[in-house]
Amino acid sequence: MVSAAALSAAAGVGGLAYYLTVTGKLTADTGWGRRVRPLGPFSIDIAAPVGTVFDVIAIPYSGRTPRAMADKLRVLERGTDVLLAEHYSRVHGGRLTTTTVETVIFDRPRWVSFRLVRGAVQRVAEEFSLSERGGTTTLAYAGELGTDFSAAGTWWASKVAPAWEAAVRGSLASIKDEAERRSGHRGG
Length: 188
Prior knowledge:
Blueprint: H1 4-22, E1 35-46, H2 50-62, E2 73-78, E3 82-91, E4 96-107, E5 111-118, E6 123-133, E7 136-147, H3 150-182
Antiparallel strand pairs: 1-7, 2-3, 3-4, 4-5, 5-6, 6-7
């Protein structure tokens, strides 16, 4: 028979493992039973030139991070067209902050790509592509999320992917608002 102390210890270890995984402090990247699922694709039309939209995406990474984004982003290393950044997202109703470390590569004004280095899952690769037609920029998003440990990883991905996509959709809406403000357009 399993003692109450053993059950309590197992629950404590499980809770700690969950906390460390959700916050991005622990990433067990084994490759065992790796499953990959798509993120997106989805897009948004923005009433602004492609250069303006690209600038809105790139500016927080290119120089001093704006105060409004200080609780969401910290650039760790900066190169000419590539950098390493920490991204922070509130989860579980704001009770926890998950931290991801990602490389960010810029190809002005066509695309921006992100590759996960450390986070709550083993693999994320994302691309934001920009195209302009008739003064309207389409900002398209597509990516993939990979988890290890077969069925357990698939279950974890089913929890992480919707939150990840919701965060991206929120970012797209913010990019749209700011790019349209900068170009003198509202709504659309």
